[in-house]
Amino acid sequence: MRTMAAPVLFFEAIVVALAIPVALALTDAPPAAVAWGFGALAVACLVCAGLLRHPWAYSLGSLLQVLVLACGLLVPAMVILGAVFGALWIAALRYGRRVDLARASSRPVGPSR
Fold first, then answer.
1. Going by C-beta distance under 8 Å and a sequence separation of 6 or more, which residues neighbour residue 85?
2. Burial class of residue 45, CB neighbours in 10 A (0-12, 13-18, 19+)
3. What is the dihedral of CA 68, 44, 4, 58, to 10 degrees?
4. pLDDT band at 110, cuts 50/70/90?
């Protein structure tokens, strides 16, 4: 699952970081709060991508998907992007298991020659 879920979080971090100037232009919220909030979310996506070797990191990744969707309160386009990345996250979890099982079944059991 990690091989498919990590890129989703990586590209999601890029999208969230690129949404900072848009959020600053579209909202009346304090600029520092918007920049730190979106920036922290982008960094959290990157950190979570690196932590996917732990089973609990997938729950954290799911929480991050909800937070990206919630960014739509400030930037309406983030609702669409959050939904797209949420669907990619679900697909990565679902099909990532299949990829892992296929890789595990194709490995030779004995010593290779």
1. 8, 11, 12, 15, 65, 68
2. buried
3. -90
4. low
